[in-house]
Amino acid sequence: MVSLTGLVNAWAQQTPGRTTTPQTAEITLDSTTVKQDSIKGDIVTTIKYTAKDSIVLNVQNKLVNMYNDANIEYGTMSLKAHTTQLDYKTNLVTAIGTKDSTGKALGTPVFKDDAEAYEAEQITYNIKSKKGKIRNVVTRQGEGFLHAEVIKKTQGDALYGVHSKYTTCDLPHPHFYINASKIKAIPGKKIFSGPFNLVFGDIPTPLGFLFGYFPTPKKRSSGLLIPTFGEARQRGFYLRQGGYYFVLNENIDMRLTGDIYSLGSYGLQLQSMYLKRYKYRGNISMSFSANKNPVTAANEATLGPGNINREPKSFWITASHTPTTLRPGGKWSASVNAGTQFYNRQNRYDNPALALNNTFSSSVQYQFAKPTSPLTFTASALHNMNTQTGVHNFTLPDASFTVNRQTPLRWFKKTGTGTWFDDIAISYSGNVRNLISTQLDRSTLSGVSNLVGGTPATTVLKLNGKNFRRILANADYGIQHSIPISMNSIRVFKYFQLSPGLSYNETWFFKKFDYNYIRDLNAVQIDTTKGFYRAYTYSASTSMSTRIYGTYIIKGKKIEAIRHLMTPNISYSYNPDFSKKYTRAIQVGRPDIENNIPIQYLPIYRNLYGVPTSFMQSNLNFSLTNNVEMKVKSKSDTASTFEKVSLIDNLGLTSGYNFAADSFQLQNVNVQFRTLLFKKLNVFSNAVFDPYEVSKSGRRVNRYSFNNGKLARLVNANLNLGMELNPEALKKGSQNTDQAPRTNRPSLETNQNLVAEYVDFKIPWTLSFTFTASYFDNPASQTKEQISKSLGIDGSVNLTEKWKITYSSGYDFQYKKMTYTSLNIYRDLHCWEMSISWVPFGEFQSYSININARSSILRDLKLSRNRGINWR
């Protein structure tokens, strides 16, 4: 080993301008050891260099040549290559690679400067001016890769490329690229190009433009959003979702987009997301749509049936706010989903779940709780709407205060006495609620209402400023208190568990109603009196249960035994009669016309929390559940080990008897059955039986059916069969696990234009089907018995490693037609993706074809073809 210290010092101390006879001194280092050294001279910073094979130092010409895995480090710059040369006269570093006997490249130069990296065939770099020339380079810029024949690097970090390619494909020979003769790149910011065109699979296409701009930020940045194009039958050609993306700061962004149609319709959307790390996250979206040609009764025949454009102007708002920590104390959460009646049906045809849904709800909630305290406070503002009926319900506020289960007797004793008295527990729940609804019940409105003949009529008002006072004046508000008293189960007769309990409920009302029947009008006059009123109820209950085991020993080759578990439960509850206290009996009808004058029991108070029990309840309820298991020899073990196999998961029966009722004391009998056949087929069935007879006119008769030799009458029944298969399920042999098997099953909630978001190529195939059958007996109707059957099937299959098909369909046997059907094809193109979605028939008939780059930078480089549901 030869030290370079003396030679380097002598070199550095040479007198400037002194001429000497040219002499060359070369020192070759031992190739068996890598030695790190440094040279200080006119260079500002120390240069460190290493080589695996040898370092040759030319002192006279101030050259350092390094061979085999050479590495040079100078400040933030580093260079690795097979062969490098450092020239101290010109401050140039030159690096080249080599090839082995088979022609494979070895030691390709890799240049790094801060966070930027370049891989090239040859690199020449001035370490003083920080300028360089790189040949046949590949460098990563943001999410993309820049290929160039020659790149010049300036002192300001700008890169100028000749015969360049820009792509998001990470292969040495990319599947596609943007071909440009000249490119300027500012690392970490953007790339500019002159005229360019798109090349697919080495085939040039005419797709391109006169200039190109591609942002390549290290952080999020604002930029344009390119719209998609298409055509809708009623609105014409369109450009949709075009606009601008704003990065307001590191925690908040905003997306402003718009739609424009050739026939005059337009739309606007504003979306924003925010995130505060370790605290909360949320989003808000506001959409507005103006329809130029809405459907009316006059032009519906011209535009065709099934048209969904019903509103000239519509809007929709969605928002959410979620805490991201579980710290004790107060926390806010919100979920908003509201808008005009027909917005989703007119504008969300790409999402069948939203377009078909009729009910939407919103809530804003504040909750305060501490783990060390039994107290919990919750305040909410709720809203729900039905787009089919147009009814809006607002609950503002809805506040509750609860005290968790407490055992007062243990407060005064350090240790319990061991008796059941120690376990007497009490809890409290208080609720304040104010309900504002656009649906007004005329039985609780001041004035005259026609209550003759059954259910009181209702009025639905439109939610606008004109009706605001009327809606607000009929707000329903009150306060409810609930105090349940319970205790732990008490063992009686050694094998039975007894659980008694008491409950006290009190409601405070602020409106009272007086009723007066007007014979001449055959209507009821309602007078409202405001004040403070109390309504209280109390009840008692107890239940007793046990478990009965039965085992049948077989000792066979495969079956060891069968066990039967029965769990009977019997309970009793009592509620006093409050009918005279909180309701008023009123005769509605004319005696000279009707022989039997109907009597209606109308509530004295507004029934926000429900009318207190009108009649005494003395119910005896009973239930019986059965579970059957089989102990079999395990197939996966050669030893004599056994496993449990469920034959019947649940076979249950429930019913009851009301001793206080004057008729029909015995309640309907409910039967349920659930099991898993062949470890794959889920079976669920339930039925309801009526123990009473039915007259020829269809009315129930207070006489048991078994008096005529019939056990009971089947009222309704349901049968559900379901199976979901995939390779994992077959391998395990069962789907009865805590986690659902992986699936590619599409659903109505899936945006059909985003197939790639839920496709998993790791699953070669899936198959799932459901069969549903129901029976309903209504003796009072003409059809009496109604039977419906439907079959649903969906799944996926991988044609190859890069091709996948997903499907979903079904058949309704009652209406003899197909249910919602969709077919989706997905192709993995490595750096590109293609999806084809097709809904062949029905209200949402449509298809779409999308081909786009996977990178978000080049997401707008896409080919799309859409055909909406309104096409004919």
UniProtKB/TrEMBL annotation:
<dbReference type="InterPro" id="IPR045659">
    <property type="entry name" value="LptD_2"/>
</dbReference>
<dbReference type="GO" id="GO:1990351">
    <property type="term" value="C:transporter complex"/>
</dbReference>
<feature type="domain" description="LPS-assembly protein LptD central">
    <location>
        <begin position="191"/>
        <end position="692"/>
    </location>
</feature>
<dbReference type="Pfam" id="PF19838">
    <property type="entry name" value="LptD_2"/>
</dbReference>
<dbReference type="GO" id="GO:0009279">
    <property type="term" value="C:cell outer membrane"/>
</dbReference>
<dbReference type="InterPro" id="IPR050218">
    <property type="entry name" value="LptD"/>
</dbReference>
<protein>
    <submittedName>
        <fullName>LPS-assembly protein LptD</fullName>
    </submittedName>
</protein>
